[in-house]
Amino acid sequence: MKSVSVRFAPSPTGPLHMGGVRTALYNYLFAKKHHGTFVLRIEDTDRKRFVPGTEDYIKASLNWCGMQWDEGPGIEGTYGPYRQSERTALYKEYALQLINSGHAYYAFDTPEEIDAMRKRLETEKSGNPQYDSQTRMGMTNSLTMTESEVSQRLNAGEAFVVRIKIPENQEVAVSDLVRGEVTVNSRLLDDKVLFKSDGMPTYHLANVVDDHLMNITHVIRGEEWLPSAPLHVLLYRFLGWEESMPQFAHLPLLLKPDGHGKLSKRDGDRMGFPVFPLEWKDPASGEVAAGYRETGYFPEAFVNMLALLGWNPGTEQEIFSMKELTEAFSLERVSKAGARFDPEKAKWFNHQYLQQKPVEDIAVQFQALLKEQGQLPAKEKVVKITSLLKERVNFVHELWEEGSFFFQPPAIYDEKFAKKKWKADTPDTLLRLAEKLLPIETFDLDNIENALHSFMEESGTGAGKIMPGLRLALVGAGRGPDLKEVMVVLGKDEVIRRIKRAVEYIPVNE
Ligand code: GLU
What we know:
Glutamyl-tRNA Synthetase, domain 2; 21 helices
């Protein structure tokens, strides 16, 4: 048996959508699982839609996700070059082969003529308004012209396209590893353009030729290409390559969070989640689109989340490393139904990875953020604070949002909470507590605990009367980690200073 070889074949027409990353991931996992080859091929034959910078963006995205390709632009393997624009001579040869064997033909129709044909068919409501086996004999092409007229036009340098000659009435079967066998009657297919007079092939020809020449064994790609698969099967047949045709697996769509329709950039903008792996700045408009990386996702969490959008392991397990995914992955467990994207679940994955990571590693990232805020605390302090906060956050940057009070006194005191908990006697109670804390020499958990206890006993005040006000004074809000831990980190002087400050600033509720 041939060893497995798959390709991820994006077109550099814009940034890679997370659906595209998922396609790359399934290809990668399948290749790794079978000890095969993962090829990156850049399908850049459509020069009109070319967007500069996207190839680099695609590569950077794959790198960020940890999906190293075995062959591709920059890593020339056996079958390069891997950019289709560098392979154009090859496609021409196969276009000619198809013409010579009677499976393709030259067409000289102007866009106006094609338009007129479509309009006529639309008004007559007879058949599909397309260039196909029903209409081609009424058009300007090498099937309706003499050989000499065709050569005359070609020699005169007239614009032409090469179209596939789809058989009139044939069942074309596509066998798909996800969907089973799908059969289409060729009558429904149009005579797609394969090659243009600018010397460029279209996607269909280039894709089939390259998959064959690159010895691709499995074509794993998005569902939007399923309608093209019968055409591709015919091309393999006409080029004499049907025996070694790759197997197809068309992946389900990623759906909007409400489950209705395809996930789009607009959904992300509207609901506040990225649809791109990395931030992308549109070179034409300058518009910046959010990326998972910049939003604070760990690549492992992003990959893990994507893997489960359309594939399931058949068990309850949700957290998978790339290695575990590689072992567990199979195309048989890819679902036919679209996969609904849940932005909350995406955050949940990041939360899980954040909890799993060594606290020292998170602290290093947090320290970098603190530096941006002009804070330069000692490493041990950052580690301590990170360990107190990490359960409460999904992203590293939220450590600052949740824990800025560790580094600076509260800028505001939560008004709603103050209204409820800052009573007439709170200032006095807290000032007396401050006095009780003052003599403590070693300001640690035990000593703080003891001081609080004896204060409560002596003053006859319950914890409910002390702790919320104290929290408000130290944190500025009614939330946050264990207050005694907070006190230890802040230190005695700062705790007392914050109590006095709060007493001064927070208005008393009578
Ligand atoms: N260039 C196509 C795309 O960007 C590839 C489709 C395929 O994998 O065959 O989606």
